[in-house]
Amino acid sequence: MISGIFHSRYEDDMALRRTHAQKIRLVILVIAFITFPFFADRYSLTLANQVGIAVIGAIGLNILVGYTGQISLGQGGFMAVGAYAAGLLTLHFGMPWWASTLIACLFTALVGVLFGIPSLRLKGLYLAIATLSAQVIILWVVTHWTAVTGGNDALVVPSPTMFGIKLNKDFNFYWVVWSIALIATLLTVNLFRTRFGRAFIAIRDQDIAASVMGVDLFKYKLLSFAISSFWVGMAGALTAHYRSIVTWERFTVDVSVLYLAMIIIGGLGSVTGSYLGATFMTLLPVLLTNLGRATKDTFPIMETILPFLQQGVFGLVIILFLIFEPEGLNKMWKNAKDYFRLWPFSY
Fold first, then answer.
1. In 3D, which of 133, 141, 127, 135 has the Cα closest to residue 75?
2. What distance, in Å, lies between the first and last C-alpha atoms of the chain?
3. Is residue 345 part of a domain?
4. Number of domain units in the chain
5. How far apart are CA 276 and CA 262, in angstroms?
6. CB distance 69 to 81 below 8 Å
7. What is the rounded distance in angstroms from the CA atom of residue 242 to the CA atom of residue 231?
8. 225 CB-contact burial (10 Å; exposed 0-12 / middle 13-18 / buried 19+)
9. CA–CA gap between residue 278 and residue 147 (Å, rounded)
10. Percent of the chain scored above 90 by pLDDT?
């Protein structure tokens, strides 16, 4: 009697999906993603696009925090770099949206490397403060460099088009954002099957031991900042093209905290956790808002306390996950899979 999962070939052992159940779930998920926009209304498509952008940003932040162990509170600032760079290149240089997005991502990666230099000497809380300073500096430049960014005024970005089709329509943008999310997922998963990814994980687990083994800490820390900032810049650039309006209010320190909460709640060091956390934290305020609207006739005070309720629930959710399930939603999903895989011997 065969018990467990066994492979007789290296190709099977190295596959991204090793079991039939995983392959079946993947097929079902792909079918759901493809058919969803044809049945969803505009509101649902808007939420799906927001989740897609959040997934890309969360994957980028997870590369730095979850896989490399470098804490960052500058997510909002790096997204602002990507958004403003893409918007300015499209507006003033007439670049197509895809070219401006790619250049904006590369520029954001360069900025990420610049602010990642202190990571060689700083760790933990000190590094968090350093990246928080990046958030403050970037927003200060955005709001005060009036000749380039327009200062506090909104930057209006031309609508992205391809073959004469406007891509910032909800239905059209769905295919763009989720295609890029798929590319980010595949590249990230395979990144940690290479020596670069293994070096990141070694630094996270114990940087001194990694250094003794020959890992160049400075090189790989800067590389993790660059790759992370690239995808974070992608999220910012997609936000600019989707909304067609770029303002600094979209990239405050609250956004940095929100994305950090996404990967904590979803699961640090997990691409699946990035998906789960981004979906959960994007839809949670929507669910609370809809709940408040549904109960405002019965409880008129709900309309007044709803903003405070959202903030309270936001903080409470983080605390509860840190106490009861530090590994996040990804661990809960693994537990559920293991239960059914091992049933009736799930204990």
1. 135
2. 20
3. no
4. 1
5. 8
6. no
7. 16
8. buried
9. 35
10. 47
Q: For the chain, give percent helix, strand, coil, nearest 5.
A: 75, 0, 20
Copy the structure tokens of residue 97.
Answer: 């949206």
Is 7 within the bounds of a domain? no
Cα–Cα distance measured from residue 340 to residue 347, given in angstroms and rounded to the nearest whole number: 11
The alpha helices in 40-123, defined as continuous H runs, are: 42-62, 75-93, 97-116
When comparing pLDDT for 119 and 233, which is higher? 233
Q: Under a CB-based contact definition with an 8 Å cutoff, are residues 103 and 251 in contact?
A: no
By percentage, how much of the chain surpasses pLDDT 70? 93
* Phi-psi group of 96: left, alpha or beta (phi > 0 → left; psi -120 to 50 → alpha; rest → beta): beta
Sequence-distant (≥ 6) Cβ neighbours of residue 146 within 8 angstroms? none
Beta carbons within 10 angstroms of residue 192's beta carbon: 16
Tell me the residue range of the domain where 67 lies: 37-253
Q: In a 10 Å sphere around its CB, with 0-12 CB exposed, 13-18 middle and 19+ buried, how is residue 341 labelled?
A: exposed
Instruction: Determine, yes or no, domain membership for 325.
Output: no
Residue carrying the six token digits 């660059």: 226
**Distance between CA atoms of residues 97 and 88, nearest Å:** 11
Report the candidate in 345, 284, 283 with the shortest Cα–Cα distance to residue 314: 284
> Which pLDDT score, from 0 to 100, does residue 1 have?
45
Residue 346 has pLDDT above 60, yes or no: no
- What's the angle, vertex CA 30, arms to CA 27 and CA 36, rounded to 5? 135
Report the pLDDT value the prediction gives residue 5, as an integer from 0 to 100.
64
Q: Is residue 284 part of a domain?
A: no
Of 57-61, 90-94, 120-124, 321-325, give the lowest mean pLDDT range.
120-124
Amino acid at 113: V
* Res 10: pLDDT: 66
Q: Give per-residue pLDDT as tens, 241-268.
A: 998 889 998 899 989 999 999 999 999 9
Amino acid found at 148 = V
pTM of the complete model = 0.91
**Residue 221 to residues 113, 134, 201, 228: CA-CA distances in angstroms?**
9, 16, 11, 11
Q: Pick from 185, 257, 192, 239: which is nearest to 54 by CA?
A: 239
